[in-house]
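REVIEWER CHECKLIST
Item 1: Sequence provided? yes
Item 2: Single chain? yes
Item 3: Sequence as submitted:
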Amino acid sequence: MNFDEMIDRQSTESVKWNWFEKDVLPMWVADMDFRSPPGVLQALRERVEHGIFGYGFPPKGLGEVISNRLATLYGWQAGTKEISYVPGIVTGFNLGLRAVCEPGDAVIFNTPAYPPFFKAPLSFALKSVENPLARDVDGQYQVDFERFEAQIRENKVKAFILCNPQNPTGRVFTRQELEQFAAICLRHQVTILSDEIHCDIIYDGRKHTPIASLDAETAKICMTFMAPSKTFNIAGLHASEVIIQDPELTKRFCAARRGIVEDPGLLALVAAKAAYETGGEWLAEVLTYLQANRDWLITALAEKIPAVKVSKPEGTFLAWLDCSGLELKESPHQFFLREARVGLNEGADFGAEGKDHVRLNFGTPRANLETALARMSVALAKI
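Item 4: Structure as written out by the authors:
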């Protein structure tokens, strides 16, 4: 695959490319600027050629493909009856909260956090409890587990929304960290809603561990949300899977979605099956490209804009940039949008810890990355 290919997306009603004015280079929304795997495109062509798009069931064998993938990659035994489908992970964890919480209950999550984590509890009159991640001497984000447990105990937390790999920091939690999360949640009867959408986008030989795969007891308190969308760049098709291994949790989740949320559309599930079945070679190639982009970005920032600090992403194709050293008189998001014509995510949207930060998407041809850094550097040189 040629990931250096520049593909015009401005004529495709793309949220990423059509949100800002035309001269702005968008480096924000978490989808990639690469053509999806050939097997996915072929499967969609064949289904579209059939010409009839009536109501349908999930493609035959999709559950088996996912179950086998979980066993192969993680040694996690999840049966096909423990897998269901939703149109997106945000939809999934909203349904999860609806299933396990009552108005007034508390929900905890690590911050900085993916913006929908802040919004979901509000939809069900729940209390949000933020557990800030702290930077160590190397600038990497770590969990204060004593504080995490104290907050759960003091607020009588009912659910924990875990994001692993973590968005926006790029942390990939280790097995030992996940065991600590699980032990605390088991002690306090907290249900874990685990957003693992970036589980395939991991670097430097690291291995993703689904928290529900730790042991049978942990699996009983988990709802795990995964998807081919980030991995294979099919986010706009809206297909995600939910793995729940406790019958009572399954029953409550099904009740929460009944009459409200249908399965993903026909083409979404066709694409999902094709991605998981045929996308392995493409994924290996894109991971190599993304890791090279990440490394180039870190080096370029150190050379061109040394006042901007970045913790090296262990996973995701997102970089969390600390711009506090620039001492700007406004949000770095607003500054770079106006002065550099580069569109980044506003750090404040990810919580209080996001002040003076921006999130940059490096899932794009290297030429775009180089242009963005050059524009940002020139803009800063003028102040």
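Item 5: Key structural point noted by reviewer: The domain at 15-30+280-381 is CATH 3.90.1150.10 (Aspartate Aminotransferase, domain 1).
Item 6: Recommendation: ____
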